[in-house]
Amino acid sequence: MKRYIQYEPFNIYLFSASEWQHPVHKHSYFEVIFIRKGQGKHFINGNTFTYSAGDVFLLGPEDYHYFQIEEKTTFCYLRFTEAFVKDPALSQSPVWLRTIKMLLNSPYQSSGSIVKEAKEKDLLEYLLLVLLHEYEQRTESSYELIMNGIMKAILGILARNVVHEKGIEVKDPKSSLLIEEILSYISQNIQKPDQLRMEQLVEKFHYSPTYLSIFFKRQTGESLQQYILKYKLQMIRNRLQFSDRSIAQITYEYGFTDGSHLNKLFKKYYGLTPGEFRSKFLEKV
């Protein structure tokens, strides 16, 4: 699996293509991918999504992807490292740090384009135009200040859309912050089942088990344990497709001590056992 490396904290890559030239790959950095023109399919971690103008994808360092272009497409990649989002010039407030932490640790890739509403796409396109203009003038002394402000706005809007996708009540800032923190904590500890037990969540967030359960269900539409299980199975699915680890290793990695239990759960959600799923995937490659 090819990995693309980036050493500078931030850059922009704008190009058009009628045929995708890159193999399935991952990166050492984050990518916000704007589809400015065209249409086709985007394959992310084994999931297939159609894309068209206005769609926006956010990929992390361990995500695998490639495009199948059906109509000549103009792509704009905003590529940045973890060092960039931790730069004091960009991240100053606790609210911003929580927001960016939630955004970069959410399983956003399983839903395709982050942005669904036309008005949000228009707003991001406007910010992107300003960013591209400033990027061309990056020798100017004010470039870094303006660029940081625009990138903060873009990432903030993407975070807002990720939260809205989970059904967060916009008019309730305290609820929004709490669900962001819970989702981020789950993402960071998805391979540590002991850290995701209810007693640990209670200790971490200082709410009763009953309150956390009702709150999470109300905000996301599913129970805490259901969300954790579905997230974990999605990660296992990705490992089966894009890693050389054995099924036993993957089972252990995600805290399943009993392979037969994983088989039953995986088959319930995907219609196949992990072994059957991997075999079927390899037949297509």
From TrEMBL:
A Pfam family per the record: HTH_18
Any one Gene Ontology molecular-function term assigned to this protein's record: DNA-binding transcription factor activity
Keyword Metal-binding: no
Coiled coil residues, start to end: none
InterPro entries linked: AraC-bd, Homeodomain-like_sf, HTH-like, HTH_AraC, HTH_AraC-typ_CS, RmlC-like_jellyroll, Tscrpt_reg_AraC-type_HTH
Chain ranges of the HTH araC/xylS-type domain: 180-280
Keywords, alphabetical: DNA-binding, Transcription, Transcription regulation
Annotated protein name in UniProt: AraC family transcriptional regulator
